[in-house]
Write a structure and sequence with these properties.
heterodimer, A: 393 residues, alpha/beta, B: 5 helices
């Protein structure tokens, strides 16, 4: 589910979003941007590149708090990287609590449990390779573009979901309305919530963008305090440069940023990552600590993790990982192979007639994409500005 | 029937893997079943790299219809002197030093044989033809 929203009035029709999208989910027609919700992987590239905030990713707001009797905030491990010391983390948690929560929960012990589970899995791994699944962007990228690697993926455990499930269990006897709010470090984690994105399977009610809370937090910072005992394993999971397991460092491949990740996945498909048996992949620079909804920057955040690790002594949460048969379904209309080959030939024939500049002026990210639309009957060759120009010359 | 042609340059390491990538992209667009796609990708990559390293150049021809995919890797020499030896896992023409550096692990041809549904290899001093095919069962 895409979380990117579009405001026509702010759109300068510069086509930057359409060109930057790694999955060609964005098109422009009738002078407006359209996002294919099922193609979008929530990587945030279009939001970053948008010059006038025409594209944005918004979570819920604190106004939702009033609908609940008991309000619980889940704080992602990556947010701890925004604070320069454990003392600052404790003040941060105190400040968040004072925004209207009854309890503020640190997710690093749950991330630590996930890290331990990954370790367990890769120590039994002989056939290359397992692929991490903590990053929702990478999961969706693999589903859409690297289907042959789906079977290599570790089940998508989410620390926030594990914590929320526990809270639901602990509070099921309470006759009060319990609201679970996730404070997200990146836009890809926003759809974890029931509202506003309608994820039926989630125990989380609302997902909030951390950066939206920043003005409130900064105003009140330093007045409140809550004891926090982060898990070192959890902190390491959120910061790629720190992530590793003793003794098998050389068998782990880490890649951050979509370009590097796609290179790693391409090589993996060719069976060319010899000697590696775990790929640790994240969309954000340096891992979750580089989340696009955090203030600060990934480099500083990574340094903060180094500092926290010298004092972090928190224990990992006790979590039972169910071996689910959950397979991420491949979205593929099952036409017959004949039909698919025929369609491919039709598309190629149209693509051959187009100039191949991939300029995007027609509203589609590439000439091939335009050719697909022509074959589907949603565009005509005349939509190509280059061809039109040529005909007029 | 869809047909494609690609040419491979001698020792063109800079472009190594590009043909396999294009073929992989094509097969993904067709929407082949992932396990089959994977076998083809691995075999194709190994064959392309072999050609770049060992041959004087040549071409890759692809033909696909509803029954399956045919791939022909044809080069203009110098040929494989001892095919049974070349088909042995671990055997490689690369020197010990070169192998430490990452060249020629010697899994190329045996790996291709393992991946493909049919495999035919013919070689003389004037060139080598590797013909591999994959069945589509749908």
């Amino acid at each position: 589910m895409s979380v990117v929203t579009y405001t026509l009035a702010k759109c300068q029709k510069c086509l930057k979003c359409l060109r930057v999208c790694p999955v060609e989910a964005i098109t422009m027609s009738d002078e407006r941007v359209k996002i294919n919700k099922s193609r979008c992987i929530n990587c945030g590239k279009c939001v970053d590149v948008c010059v006038n905030q025409g594209l944005q990713a918004k979570g819920s707001t604190l106004a939702e708090l009033e609908y609940y009797d008991v309000k619980i905030a889940l704080v992602s491990s990556a947010l701890l990287a925004a604070a320069p010391s454990i003392g600052h983390i404790e003040e941060l948690f105190g400040t968040i609590r004072n925004l209207g929560f009854d309890e503020v929960i640190d997710l690093s012990p749950y991330d630590g449990a996930i890290a331990a589970e990954i370790h367990e899995r890769i120590s039994h791994q002989t056939d290359p390779y397992l692929i991490s699944s903590f990053c929702p962007v990478i999961n969706r990228l693999i589903e859409g573009k690297y289907p042959m690697l789906l079977e290599n993926m570790i089940p998508p455990y989410r620390s926030a979901e594990l914590a929320a499930k526990r809270i639901r269990k602990e509070t099921e006897k309470i006759e009060k309305k319990v609201g679970i709010f996730l404070l997200c470090e990146c836009i890809a984690k926003l759809p974890a919530a029931k509202y506003p994105y309608g994820n039926k399977d989630s125990e989380i009610d609302h997902a909030l963008s951390i950066v939206d809370l920043f003005p409130l937090i900064s105003k009140e910072f330093g007045k409140f305090h809550q004891i926090v005992d982060p898990s070192a394993d959890g902190l390491r999971l959120s910061s790629n440069p720190h992530f590793s397991f003793k003794g098998i460092e050389s068998r782990i491949l880490k890649a951050d940023g979509l370009e590097k990740v796609q290179l790693a996945l391409d090589l993996a498909e060719f069976g060319q990552l010899k000697g590696r048996y775990y790929l640790h992949l994240s969309n954000c620079i340096n891992g979750c600590v580089g989340g696009n909804l955090l203030w600060g920057n990934p480099f500083e955040a990574t340094q903060h993790i180094s500092d926290h690790l010298s004092t972090a002594r928190g224990v990992n949460a006790q979590v039972v990982f169910e071996t689910s048969d959950e397979v991420m379904d491949e979205v593929n209309e099952r036409k017959s192979i004949q039909e698919r080959l025929y369609e491919y030939a039709l598309i190629s024939a149209q693509a051959d007639m187009l100039p191949g500049y991939d300029c995007g002026a027609c509203g589609f990210a590439s000439c091939r994409r335009m050719a697909e639309e022509i074959v589907a009957g949603r565009a005509i060759l005349g939509n190509c500005r280059i061809l039109r120009e040529g005909n007029n010359a | 029937m869809i047909e494609q042609h690609y040419s491979v340059g001698r020792e063109d390491y800079a472009n190594a893997g590009k043909i396999s990538s294009q073929i992989k992209t094509f097969l993904k667009q067709i929407g082949l079943e992932p396990a089959l796609l994977r076998r083809i990708a691995v075999a194709c990559y190994e064959a392309e790299i072999n050609m770049i390293i060992h041959s004087y150049g040549g071409e890759v021809r692809l033909a696909m219809d509803e029954n399956g995919l045919d791939l022909v890797f044809q080069d203009i020499g110098p040929g494989i002197p001892d095919i049974p030896k070349a088909m042995t896992a671990g055997w490689s023409t690369a020197t010990e030093k070169a192998r430490e550096f990452g060249f020629g692990a010697g899994m190329g041809l045996p790996n291709i044989l393992r991946m493909a549904d049919t495999f035919a290899l013919n070689s003389s001093q004037s060139g080598t033809i590797l013909h591999i095919a994959f069945k589509v069962n749908e």
